[in-house]
Amino acid sequence: xxxxxxxxxxxxxxxxxxxxxxxxxxxxxxxxxxxxxxxxxxxxxxxxxxxxxxxxxxxxxxxxxxxxxxxxxxxxxxxxxxxxxxxxxxxxxxxxxxxxxxxxxxxxxxxxxxxxxxxxxxxxxxxxxxxxxxxxxxxxxxxxxxxxxxxxxxxxxxxxxxxxxxxxxxxxxxxxxxxxxxxxxxxxxxxxxxxxxxxxxxxxxxxxxxxxxxxxxxxxxxxxxxxxxxxxxxxxxxxxxxxxxxxxxxxxxxxxxxxxxxxxxxxxxxxxxxxxxxxxxxxxxxxxxxxxxxxxxxxxxxxxxxxxxxxxxxxxxxxxxxxxxxxxxxxxxxxxxxxxxxxxxxxxxxxxxxxxxxxxxxxxxxxxxxxxxxxxxxxxxxxxxxxxxxxxxxxxxxxxxxxxxxxxxxxxxxxxxxxxxxxxxxxxxxxxxxxxxxxxxxxxxxxxxxxxxxxxxxxxxxxxxxxxxxxx
Length: 472
Hints:
By secondary structure, the protein is of the alpha/beta class. It is built from 14 helices and 21 strands.
């Protein structure tokens, strides 16, 4: 990474502009000024504005791109574990933000399972203070219950005033139906979504990986998908009666996709997310077999048997489940892709599978996984960018929390931009991650598509390749 002071006006041209918010996917230019988008779209029109600025004596720096390079709104991750405060050995606000910038993200939403839990105005203020000097924008998510213990609601109105964008006990489910009901009732006037980690502990028990043939072969306790589906269905029925906004985190099962589909058909205010690893990886990665959509790209990957880096919550599922979640994303049943970036230290994973922590460090590989998926299934890049940038801003109404609109390249929006090469093939090397967490099952896997530059608020915060630049 290089520290580069971006000039007052930046003109990016020559590449392919993708902006789902304007249904634009074509050759296009973008002009950035004072942290905002001045113009984006038709090259001739943007060039005319740039020339007008030059004629007025403005200093403009140009970034000239090859035609195959893509320019899109900076990505937004609605599900990031930054670990600070309390677990800074695993990640910090600063290290997580740097890793996110490398992955093309300009906004990340931090989950509340910190120590202390993000359940008070003071902890929210601590996170926002650290975010002031972070590489990109960090927006906190507050806990639903105090200490994430499931027995007493947090001061939700106070947390909303402090700046949280949503409420979740992620990492732990809200086990009590009455507690979830109260949370939905309190969130209703705030018009802020409740996010639940759908896991019925009585059904899941001590499961450590997906119930199925792979778990049987390895002799590991299975985790049935019904544990996710049943709690999700409980929540959806509560939403039906209360009318609050509800967001289902990291869906992994075909049954969950069906449940959300029915809820949306019934007009419930429900949204959902899926992670790249639940789209592309299967439970067979735990036993060292790189099955699923990434199989051909992982031939040289380091995929040992009892692969603790493939242990995640909810667990990697079957091919049937990955196909169902992908179809849900393409159908619009699943609204967004979120990373569930969960960094851990070496000792958290270098142990027996039963003892290993759940989680994958995924924010630096997320876009590449999605671009690989796009190539494999002939998915329009506009669909990928919509799920990773435009729709997260809409689902969480992030414009209420930011100075300028994000997830879009419309004039007046924040100058948050990602530039990527959709065709560059590279090998994932966990040791090179900027995240403190190197826990990825993709170590040694080849991916297709790479972030080349990330611009946040008009400043370059990550650069992989020094593009052809010239001051004017």
